[in-house]
User: What shape does this take?
Amino acid sequence: MSKKEALLKAAENKVRLGGYSNFSFRELASEIGIKSASVHYHFPTKADLGAELAHQYTNAFLNALGSPSEHLANGKNPIEVYTQLFRSALLFDKKMCLCGLLGAESDSLPEKVRFEVKRFFNQNLEWLTEAHLANGEQQPKHAAIQTVSLLEGAMMISKTLDDNSYFELATQPA
Amino acid sequence: MSKKEALLKAAENKVRLGGYSNFSFRELASEIGIKSASVHYHFPTKADLGAELAHQYTNAFLNALGSPSEHLANGKNPIEVYTQLFRSALLFDKKMCLCGLLGAESDSLPEKVRFEVKRFFNQNLEWLTEAHLANGEQQPKHAAIQTVSLLEGAMMISKTLDDNSYFELATQPA
DNA sequence: AGCCGCCTACCTATCGATAGGTAACTTATA
DNA sequence: TATAAGTTACCTATCGATAGGTAGGCGGCT
Assistant: This one.
């Protein structure tokens, strides 16, 4: 893994625990064994690092998601697949969704970081709308925004109350 | 308004925009016209200020909520009342829920702040469970966690995408 | 030769926190 | 009633730590 990749990985861990201000160039550098000044070689400013982090996170998330049609072809409900990806983040990473946290801090973020967070949610809503449409929902856009909202909120509350069963209850159909 | 109240109010604005690390004693002090050292007279440490802020926020929120039975007696659906309180925060304050933001940062918060955030959600879940029970829901605890999750998530996404109609779509019954 | 990836060695700004002091007010006591 | 003691709500000055960022150097690889 290159130093740049290592920096992004270290930053992701920090941000997913405490937000944008929860990482510093010094901490990141010392964790991967270089000097803080060298971090500026890879990322001119902190905002550049944050933006690239959110961008790559979004790409990785979308990539892991695949396409709704592909899941339907395999006889799987794409909404279940989507929910499962959130569940994995909570159970295995034991961390918040990067963009869920950044989104909450949205008002105080550098513009280029905020832009990438917006992109995450717009792409997610697009995916979910397609999925709900395929599922025959009469209002796929409503259903899409309800799905992300519920999952992001459930994640946050499970983390806060330190009990993953809240996530399960929230995602369990009535 | 006392200086202490003014400090808490100033801190609330900052935190609801960017989280726990988005306020400093210096900024708060200069905003209300005292020196940063004097802030320590009212709050020994930053964690003390944060904890008291979350505590008072929770009390004010619960107070504004009233009781589920009182709303039922007035022919109002308590869940609608609850939703409306979130909507007000978004539309009038134009800010995130304080504890929604702090909850997302939960992992990096001082223990006493985290404790108060937990209290917010436990109290909210209690209120909502009672409300859903009164509404005749067969699984009031499930419904309660689903309600908070959806509202907190919808708030975060509306703030992120800078469009309150997302909140409306999310809270609109299917 | 030239660039890549890192380094040393800084800078300025800001952070939370502490020490010690002061003026104004309140309370307790003789 | 007068004075002493204590409290409230601030102040100035300063601490060590840390923040993001910059200038310029140096070795290794092509």
User: Anything to note?
Assistant: Chain A has ten helices and no strands. Chain A has one domain: 45-171. Residues 24-26, 36-37, 40, 44-46 of chain A lie near DNA strand D (CB under 10 Å from a C1').
